[in-house]
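ARCHIVE CARD
SHELF: 3
SLOT: left
DATA:
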Amino acid sequence: MAASLIELQKQSYKRVDPLARTGNKTEYSSEATTTMKTVTTLIAIAAAFTLWQSPANAAITTALAPDVAASVWQEGEMEYATVTFNGKELVTFQGISGTGTAGVKAEDLACKLQALLEDKKLNVNDLLPSRFGDTVGLQLHGTTVLSFDLNDTMATGDTDKDKVTQAKEMSYSLVNDIRAAYGAPLLPQALGGKIAENFSTNISRRLAHAGKAVSSFTGKASWYGPHFHGRRTSDGTIYNQDGMTAAHRTLPFGTRLLVVNRNTGESVVVKVNDRGPFVGDRVLDLSRGAARQLNMMSAGVVPVACLVLSSAE
């Protein structure tokens, strides 16, 4: 069903020579407008039907199925094409008027994104940002499934930022827009900088093996070691300073966390087995083994982003 609709969209999407011009505004025939609206409606209905059929996504879908649409307009000698997701602008492509390049790129992105969302096997918790240079993208199970070149788009937001930084931020924004539409937890906004650079080869690999993120939080983490080694922790087990564990004030014992050092992008998966820390605004007290994995032993305290991977076992 998804394939046939995508094919329908490709066949129906067509450039129409302007019938009239008023200043820089280009008017298109009612036939083209009607066709685009019909195709968008069909795709939205199909997405709703597909998501309704899919038990895997039943718990994390919204009442209305995500709607992907592409629209094209002209201003002077330039052509612009915007891809929207649930009415929110994701990206706007630009090109020279009359070439159709912006429209083609927007259509291609919209079709691929719609096909991805219509996949019955998709679990949006598995979607992660994928960024290489100026390329914005999404990855699924370590494979890039959707991408586009930021250089083909209009600069948005803080134009003082370089293209690589904008590509990182747009990749995260794209992932979180989709996660939000399905009611899935958002990736922490703190996942940027060094973390974004290492995500595809580091954090995503750990997530693929450790499980799905169900919530997230950020803050400062410290570590504790020799003085407590061999003593009982709050859950009754013996503390091993070289293990991969952590103390948290309230999370259930057995909860697994993906902890990311926001200064370096390095990450580790730990299990909560103790209570604390009770110092200042720290959110975690890590074992020496976990601290070594995060390269934070000498620093002592570092800013972290944490993804909660599971409830207590």
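SLOT: right
DATA:
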Amino acid sequence: MICPYLVTLPEGGAFGSAMSRVFPERVYEGLSRSVRELDWHEARREFYRQRERNVSGHHAFKKIFDRTARKEMADSVGDFFGASISADFDIAAHKMIEGDYIAAHTDENDFDEEFRLTVTLNEHWSIEQGGILLTLRSGSMRDVEGAWLPSRNNGFLFGISERSFHAVTPVKSEAARYSLIFTFKRSQAPYKNDVWLRWYPFPFKSDVSEAQYNAEVMGLDLRAFDAPYTRHAFSGKDEFDDFVGGALLNAPQGLSYSRPGSRNVDERGQQPRGSDAERLAKIAELERIPPIALVRKVTGEYVLVNGSHRLSHAVDRGTAIAATIFSEPMSA
């Protein structure tokens, strides 16, 4: 249901992650259209002014977020936080017009709401239009940690706490600023997918860009990256081998750089990012690892396009493997 690219991580004091391409294009277009057809109610509080609607029960949003979609979205968000999340999440729509604003706040509450995803639905938005989402280190608007344009299909996913300070600067545009806010609660079921405690469930935007470059060099169909990816978790090398049919193209021998004769080099035969041993050592220091990226060819073969050292690290240690898979389209 969501297939975002991670732009930032909740590390180094940050409390959430910025994302791009949160929803598949078809879903995003439906959401963008539906939110602009709503009737709005102005909401004023001590720290904000905007127009808002709860759309959880609205027919257009119920159609998009049916039972299956809700479960998929809750599972995806849950895998990011390592938590079992209820599919009965709340959806609110916000519209901000010129002069509207949201001052610094945390969203902390007494309703067991623990996680929130905000997705913006605005075309060609510029910094001069205001309405910038700020993440803050404290309750001061001057203590800025990050600033994010409310552009199309961008998102920010975070855990609600006493330190999740954020705000929206005053809108200075004649064009309205639209967003959707998804609010999640934990379910009673225990969380069981330990793979995602070690691996991120979504790819990094920079890794996808590198994967696209590698795919182009190898002559793969770049339209694979236009469609939503799928994400997969494998208990280990044997399960991964079975999935790829025992043959993964563009991979180190035995899926490991610890094997004699396995060496990662660029097109000039160089190792500008360091030796394989150095890169593996850096991965070993990570608390959580970005998924590897594969392209599934129309022939059914799989090609490794990003993350060979991460794959080697998992194989060498006999641990689980997580992969993001992009599929070449069947049609010409």
